[in-house]
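Handover notes (outgoing to incoming on-call)

Open items:
1. Molybdopterin-dependent oxidoreductase: sequence verified, structure written out, both below. Nothing else pending on this one.
2. Nothing else urgent.
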Amino acid sequence: MSLKRPMSLFRPRRGPDPSILAEHRALIEEIDRRKLLRGAVSLGALSMLTGCNIAEQPQVQSVLRAVSSFNDRVQEAIFDPNKLAPTYSVDQVVKPPRFNAYYEIENVRPVDVSGWKLELAGLVADKRPWTLDQIYALPEQEEIIKHICVEGWDYIGQWSGPNLRQFLTRVGADLSAKYVAFHGNDDYLEVIDMPSALHPQTILATKYAGEPIADPFGYPLRLRTAVKLGFKNPKWIRAIEVTNVYQEGFWEKQGFNWFSGL
Ligand SMILES: Nc1nc2c(c(=O)[nH]1)N[C@H]1C(S)=C(S)[C@@H](COP(=O)(O)O)O[C@H]1N2
Ligand SMILES: [Mo]
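Molybdopterin-dependent oxidoreductase structure tokens:
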């Protein structure tokens, strides 16, 4: 199966050697995209600030990584757990949703729900797995929110399912832990910070526009949060783990920011 490369949003104009830019493209794109340091950071400015030779690639890499993790810390620090993201009206909902994954839609392997159970791991008091019927029996919350993908597109979707804070509270998760990790059936791992997991607009979605989510979009269970970019919304969840261990998923390994909040 061939993995996709993130689409380039960045076009080198003039200045540093384009091959260096190409090498560090994902990190530069991320820095550029977040706008946080826009104007303040160019490779030239970085080399002046750090005194490191722009031709020495490992140093460029480590400076960019340092900027990226600084960016994560700033985003984490300014995140307001009570601020609500915009919501939309039913007539704006796109049907069906727009597909994306780290592979093409033809390669989606639908989850066989006959033996499926949601596993719980890590800092959770009650680790009994959940059947789909038990999850469907929980109170539902609906969110009409925008999904924004780092590949440069977005759509408004209508998701419903149990509120994640209520679910984590119910299973006795340690809400003071740092992270909630989601393991997808397709070996996709994504981890979000606890404040975002506990945000009122973060749900375990089972439905789209009132119907069970279709296979390509994460049936039977996915995360939908209004406070994270698309890739931080794992589909086909098979296990939820509460942990203090920092882990990076597919897109972070491509150079996108770990926090990736909206
Ligand atoms: N399990 C899993 N979840 C995933 C992905 C994936 O490849 N596998 N891709 C992510 C990305 S990059 C995006 S933009 C959204 C796409 O969700 P959609 O197909 O419902 O629009 O799913 C995210 N969740
Ligand atoms: Mo995405």
